[in-house]
Amino acid sequence: MAKQEPGDFPAGDIVFLDRGDGNSALLHLHGATLISWKCHSVENLFLSSTSVFDNKKAIRGGVPIAFPNFGPWPLGPQHGFARIKRWTVAVPPTKDAHGDVLAVLTLEDDEETRAMWDYKFKLVYTLVLSEKKLVSTLVIHNTDTKSLGFTTLLHTYFRVSDIDKTTVEGLKGLKYIDKITGGKDVIETRDLVTVDRNYDRVYKDAPQIVVISSGPEPSRKIEVKSFNFPDVVVWNPWDVKAKEMGDFDDEGYKEMVCVEVGKVVTPVTLTAGSQYECSQTFTSML
Length: 286
Ligand SMILES: O=P(O)(O)OC[C@H]1O[C@H](O)[C@H](O)[C@@H](O)[C@@H]1O
Fold this sequence. Notes:
By secondary structure, the chain is mainly beta. It is 5% helix and 44% strand.
């Protein structure tokens, strides 16, 4: 079983946002990785049952944060260090008058990050949970006296009932890079993108809204609305790659699709003292 309940972890390792009505979100401080988002008790995120929780390896599933680099990185680990650093709770889960819950986590440079990437920075990750909705906002502050450059992405693993019946809407007409086949940009011609093999595609200049619909029992239809994340990666390892990964369920590829909003094609340059805000909002449409 995937560990997606608060009781699966020491209390000091997690942040639990709970509306008390079946809408909840669970974050692990390792990487500030969101590992569960439930709407009316239905889990919407995929987490591998073989994910390792050793506070070292990246968590396999949920929403790992790629920063300051998406993809292979000559200066450090793939997808950067944010997903494997311990984040700090700046504001613990706090309920407002409507029952909505807010929490804020932060990550700042330290000796280890500066040894890889010699910049001072602060990341502020704010989650606001309401009924059938979760807003995740990442603000990247350059706290250094020099400019810095980065790419970033929220690597969301959506849980689906049946990958064969899953569609991603909103990508038609976009150019994408197919990282599996390489080569030139391809134009997406489908209204509804389906995944039937190892997919690793970077869609460029996507609209702000994409919708993931999964198969029945339970049916899910999740709208992802992004801000300042112009690119969308669609990834599924499929059978062979799933087996090759030690921390991925062999059959898990049938129950997930990664739809990852990011700023990855063109890096951001932040001058000293400036900041970049980006966000994704999940809304359950059912
Ligand atoms: O195994 P990870 O480092 O978590 O990366 C998992 C995947 O992340 C993204 O979707 C990339 O586009 C893929 O190329 C990569 O395989």
